[in-house]
Amino acid sequence: MSEHQITVLVMAPLVALFAWSVAAINGAVERGKYDINPAIGIRTSSTMHCEDCWRAGHHAAAGPLCHMLPPVLLLALAALAATLLESVSGPVPAYAMLAVGFSWIMAAMVAAAHKANAAARNLHPENQHPDAQLPR
Ligand SMILES: [Zn+2]
Predict the structure, then answer these.
(1) Domain limits at 14?
(2) How remote is the CA of residue 60 from the centroid of ligand 1, in Å?
(3) For 67-126, what is each residue's pLDDT tens digit?
(4) CA distance 53 to 55
(5) Assigned domain for 70 exists
């Protein structure tokens, strides 16, 4: 077994685990397991505005993150298959599949953050937030 194959055998499960973790953590926040906190979740100024925004943002983010899972898991599996064929195709295809999978996760996280922000901002149209009506 070559160093390339060992690398791919280690990296492919890590890419799959990373993809699953991102979706699972968002799901846990969406289900109310984590309120606004300093460590976990999509922590933008819009999503952290209030608990309603926090929940709505993570609900909106679930779509892009869940849709990212199947292709990324397939890419990780394909990378494992490709590395078994290293003697035929060389190491590049397996690495390329892992790179595409990782990039796909990053793109999904950016898309999820955009959706989360939009959902949070839509929750209280400007100057209509309940806090704005409280006496100061
Ligand atoms: Zn809010």
Answers:
(1) 3-125
(2) 14
(3) 999 999 999 999 999 999 999 999 999 999 999 999 999 999 999 999 999 999 999 876
(4) 5
(5) yes
Taking 3-state DSSP, the helix, strand and coil percentages for the chain, each rounded to the nearest 5, stand at 75, 0, 25
Q: Cα(41) to centroid of ligand 1, in Å?
A: 15
Output the CA 78–ligand 1 centroid distance in Å: 42
Is 24 inside any structural domain?
Answer: yes
Average pLDDT, the chain: 93
Contact 59, 41 (CB under 8 A): no
- Judge whether 73 and 19 are in contact, CB under 8 Å: yes
The answer to whether residue 136 sits within a structural domain is: no
Is 60 exceeded by the pLDDT of residue 29? yes
Domain count, the chain: 1
Q: What was the pLDDT predicted at 136?
A: 46
